[in-house]
Specification:
Helix content: 55-70%
Distance between the termini: 19 Å
Order of helices and strands: HHHH
Number of helices: 4
Largest sheet: none
C-alpha cells in the first residue's frame, strides 16, 4: 500500500467516524453537519492525490485492510 493510498483510506475512516458521531443524535445532527466540511475536503483531496477517484474497488479494499469489520467496505 502506497503512502498516498493509506492516507486516503485513513481520511475516509476519519470522515466515516466523524459522520457517525455528528449524526448519532437525530435531534442534534443538523447542528453538527457543518463540521463535516473539513473531513470531507480532507478525504476528497486524499483520494485525488492517491489517484483513487473512480477506482472505488481498490479504495474499499484499502479501507477493509484498515477496518476489516466494515462489511462491503462502506
Amino acid at each position: 500500500m502506497r503512502d498516498a493510498e493509506l492516507a486516503a483510506a485513513q481520511a475516509y475512516v476519519r470522515l466515516l467516524e466523524a459522520t457517525r458521531a455528528a449524526l448519532a443524535d437525530p435531534d442534534d445532527g443538523p447542528l453538527y453537519v457543518p463540521l463535516l466540511a473539513s473531513p470531507i475536503a480532507e478525504a476528497d483531496g486524499a483520494l485525488r492525490r492517491a489517484g483513487l477517484c473512480g477506482n472505488e474497488s481498490r479504495f474499499f479494499d484499502l479501507v477493509r485492510a484498515l477496518r476489516p469489520s466494515m462489511p462491503g467496505g462502506h
